[in-house]
Amino acid sequence: MLCAVYKTRKKEGMFLYVPKKEDFSAVPEALMAQFGRPELVMLLPLNKREALGRVDKATLIAALNDQGFYLQIPPRQEDWLAEHRSSLGLSSREETKKF
């Protein structure tokens, strides 16, 4: 199975996988509007890959077969400073002081 992988300029690390190059017919219009203009990253032969980066191969194949696309969302970035401030009972963001 071959799939096409596209990236967006709107969100770093977000990728859209579709079974055929330039075929976004199964992708909801609202998602395409949020994703923006897709930029082709690569054509990926799934049968020749044992593992994929951040995507579970079985999950990807199931999504491509069931819904016609797979959206890879970047992992949530941790904000250690905000977590530390919250643990101290402070606001997660430092308040700006007005003089």
What does this structure look like?
- With 99 residues, the chain is α+β, with helices and mostly antiparallel strands.
- It has one domain: Roll (NE1680-like fold).
- It contains 3 helices and 4 strands; from the N terminus they run E-E-H-E-H-E-H.
- It has a 4-stranded antiparallel beta sheet.
- Strand 1 and strand 2 form a beta hairpin.
- The longest helix has 10 residues, at 57-66.
- The relative contact order is 0.21.
SSE blueprint and pairings:
Blueprint: E1 2-7, E2 15-18, H1 29-35, E3 39-45, H2 57-66, E4 70-72, H3 80-87
Short note summarizing the structure:
The protein is α+β, with helices and mostly antiparallel strands. It has one domain: Roll (NE1680-like fold). The chain has helices at 29-35, 57-66, 80-87; strands at 2-7, 15-18, 39-45, 70-72.
- In CATH, the topology is named NE1680-like fold
The helix content, as a percent range, equals 25-40%
Instruction: Let me know the average pLDDT.
Output: 87
- The CATH superfamily appears as YcgL domain
| Number of E-type strands | 4
CATH class categorisation: Alpha Beta
Give me the Rg, rounded.
Answer: 19 Å
Q: How many helical elements?
A: 3
Organism: Salinimonas sediminis
Pfam families: YcgL
Protein name: YcgL domain-containing protein D0Y50_12430
